[in-house]
Write a structure and sequence with these properties.
- The structure holds 2 protein chains of 2 kinds.
- In chain A, helix 4 (about 90-130) packs parallel to helix 7 and helix 5 (about 130-145) packs antiparallel against helix 7.
- Chain A has a domain at about 100-295: MetI-like fold (Orthogonal Bundle), CATH 1.10.3720.10.
- The two termini of chain A are about 30 Å apart.
- Chain A is built from 12 helices and no strands.
- Chain A is mostly helical.
- By secondary structure, chain B is α/β, with parallel strands linked by helices.
- Chain B folds into 2 domains: about 1-105 and about 155-220, Rossmann fold (3-Layer(aba) Sandwich), CATH 3.40.50.300; about 235-330, no CATH class.
- In chain B, about 30% of the residues lie in helices and about 25% in strands.
- Chain B has helices at about 45-55, 80-85, 110-120, 125-135, 145, 155-170, 185-205, 215-220, 240-245, 250-255, 295-300, 320-325, and strands spanning about 5-15, 20-30, 35-40, 60-70, 75, 90-95, 175-180, 205-210, 225-230, 230-235, 305, 315.
- In chain B, a hairpin with a 6-residue loop joins strand 11 and strand 12.
- Chain B is globular.
- Classes of the chains: A mainly alpha, B alpha/beta.
- The interface between A and B is medium-sized, with 28 and 37 residues.
């Protein structure tokens, strides 16, 4: 294998004749693609995601269906209950996968909502600065002081334990960190010359935020979002563990872990299964986050 | 009527726990259509703040006073909205560092058509055609293909060409260039200077060129204004200023320049001392402490910018007779 490239090869890769231009975003993703740990994590996560949606159908068992011939079975490769069953004879694997839908959906939806709100809020506070910034960030400080568990408990007891309410409650507190991170980054971006250059051609402040600031935040936002996903999945688990999350017969990893923890001595597999699944997922997201951080951390542009 | 007429422009920065800084102190000048004015001075002499005040890009703690009438409208009193209609439309601006003045996440095309989108009602296709035309005007080879690339794929000189194309794409009456060549290496500097001269001649765009490079000013400008500590110390036609500078500070700047035709081998003459600190109270002439000829009035009375005794279109702010300074020129 030739290590050096021929001059003609370099010419083709070089500026003048390069077949396709690469945006900074595309460059970051091609760097990400060279990170094996991150790529493997992404693959595992995709498999988990696909399994959560497809496998219960393939296995052909209803998560609420009881197998009366196999009550509280430990994990076994025979008999079809690979991860065992609970005391009602429900298959744990199917329940974990179906519960994973809720956990992943809440993780992604919560991150999306919190990300959009946090980026908009932080970019505006950072760009407009001065009193606007002071007031907006004091509001964030005040929200930090409110214990989110209290609000979650209040919301659930007042309005019932509904999926979208869980997402809303979690998002309502998760955007705060994102807003702070984005504001800090915006403060430094706003002094960059291209922002002055944009002002000097008559771009209005809102367009500067939308067109010139926000795209430049993409690196830090993507990286921070991968930190938020596990945080939100965990928050959902905590809420469910406390009995504030989704309601039976719907289930999530948090609900399963809570259930397993109560029956730890009699049926330890009920805790180990969902806990392992949660851990693998969180590790994968963290590895992907590290990969993205490295991919976006460059002084090239 | 003059295209731009600046009268008594002052910029003051209020500071917390410290006296205010007068970055620009009572500057007046005017510029005819198609002419070029060079503003020369050391770092911190208020060159950049002068032009930033004109286009309304000031820090929040700046207080601007005076009058700056551009095409009959006072730039200093215009609303942000009205200013936005002038900036990038009638007034173009080129910044110092081309490496950071382009948005890394937008293609060159997206950035070049932005002024057109904002100020001209043109179709997408026409905007693109005009952007390519602007790139060709600044001699960027293969413009039609390069326009869809990102800034990181361009060299410094090419990026500065893109910046100039961006400032010129709407065919402004006035181009403000804030040290357009400072961040570039010498050969590229020369190319950019040539380009600016050519554009000025062909398009008739008036230009304000800020530089601390006397050579660039000499090569490009009809008139040169020398600033020191926020004040104008000398203002004359480039020919006259470089042939016979009359202010001790200008003379000092000239003596500090290396010359190719100097074979005496003596070291470059530096101006002794340092410029006044920002916020330092100045009585009399700001340059007095460094001036080899400073006398009694220089320390106590602020010199006014007056028409020179020897010439119609030269102004100087100095208590001493012009001959005293000229004698020092090496």
């Amino acid at each position: 294998m030739a290590i050096t490239t021929s001059p003609s090869q370099r010419m083709r890769d070089g500026f003048a004749d390069a077949p396709k231009t690469k945006s900074p975003l595309a460059l970051a993703f091609s760097r990400f693609a060279r990170n094996r740990a991150a790529l493997a994590s992404l693959a595992v996560l995709v498999v988990i995601g696909l399994a959560c949606y497809a496998a219960p159908l393939l296995i052909g068992r209803d998560p609420a269906e009881s197998d009366w011939s196999a009550i509280a079975f430990p994990p076994t490769l025979l008999g079809g209950h690979w991860l065992g069953t609970d005391e009602l004879g429900r298959d744990l694997l199917v329940r974990i996968l179906v519960g994973g839908r809720i956990s992943l959906e809440i993780g992604l939806l919560g991150t999306l909502v919190a990300g959009v709100v946090g980026v908009t809020y932080g970019a505006c506070a950072g760009y407009f600065g001065g009193r606007v910034d002071a007031v907006m960030m004091r509001i964030v400080d005040m929200m930090y002081a409110i214990p989110y568990m209290l609000i979650a408990i209040l919301m659930m007891t007042l309005f019932g334990r509904e999926f979208h309410l869980v997402v809303l409650t979690i998002s309502a507190f998760s955007w705060l960190d994102m807003a702070r991170v984005v504001r800090g980054q915006t403060l430094s971006l706003r002094t960059r010359e291209f922002v002055d250059a944009a002002r000097a051609i008559g771009v209005t402040p809102w367009s500067i935020v939308a067109r010139h600031i926000v795209p430049n935040l993409v690196g830090i936002v993507v990286v921070y979002a991968t930190v938020m996903v596990p945080g939100i999945v965990l928050t959902e688990s905590v809420l469910s563990f406390l009995g504030l999350g989704v309601q039976e017969p719907m289930t999530s990893w948090g609900v399963l872990i809570q259930d397993g923890a109560q029956k730890l001595e009699a049926m330890p597999w009920l805790l180990l299964g969902p806990a392992a699944m949660l851990c693998i997922t969180l590790y994968c997201v963290n590895f992907i986050g590290d990969g993205l951080r490295d991919a976006f951390d460059t002084k090239d542009y | 009527m003059d295209l731009l007429e600046v009268e008594n422009l002052s910029v003051r920065f209020a500071r917390r726990d410290a006296p205010a800084v007068d970055a620009v102190d009572d500057i007046s000048f005017s510029l005819d259509a198609g002419r070029t004015l060079g503003i020369v001075g050391e770092s911190g002499s208020g060159k950049s703040q002068t032009v930033l005040a004109l286009i309304g890009l000031m820090a929040a703690n700046a207080q601007v006073s005076g009058r700056a009438s551009f095409e009959g409208r006072d730039l200093l009193t215009l609303s942000e909205r009205a200013l936005n209609q002038l900036r990038g439309n009638r007034i173009g601006m080129v910044f110092q560092d081309p490496m950071t003045s382009l948005n890394p996440f937008l293609t060159v095309e997206q950035q070049l058509v932005e002024p057109l989108r904002l100020h001209r009602k043109v179709s997408r296709r026409e905007a693109r055609a005009r952007a390519i035309e602007a790139l060709e005007r600044v001699h960027l080879p293969d413009a039609a293909r390069r326009i869809c690339r990102y800034p990181h794929e361009f060299s410094g000189g090419m990026r500065q060409r893109v910046m100039i194309a961006m400032a010129l794409v709407t065919e402004p009456r006035l181009l403000i260039a804030d040290e357009p060549t400072t961040a570039l290496d010498v050969t590229v500097q020369a190319q950019i200077v040539d380009l600016l001269r050519e554009l000025n001649r062909e398009c008739g765009t008036a230009m304000i060129l800020i530089t601390h490079d006397m050579g660039v000013a000499a090569g490009l400008c009809d008139e040169v204004m020398v600033m020191y500590a926020g004040r104008t110390v000398e203002h004359a036609s480039a020919l006259q200023l470089f042939a016979a500078p009359t202010h001790p500070y200008t003379v000092g700047l000239m003596n500090a320049l290396p010359r190719l035709d100097d074979e005496s081998g003596r070291p470059l003459a530096a101006i002794a001392g340092h410029p006044p600190l920002p916020g330092e109270a100045i009585e009399g002439c700001a340059f007095a402490k460094r001036c080899p000829h400073a006398g009694e009035p220089c320390m106590t009375t602020r010199p006014v910018l007056r028409r020179s005794a020897d010439s119609e279109d030269a102004w100087r702010a100095c208590h001493l007779p012009a001959a005293a300074a000229v004698g020092d020129l090496q």
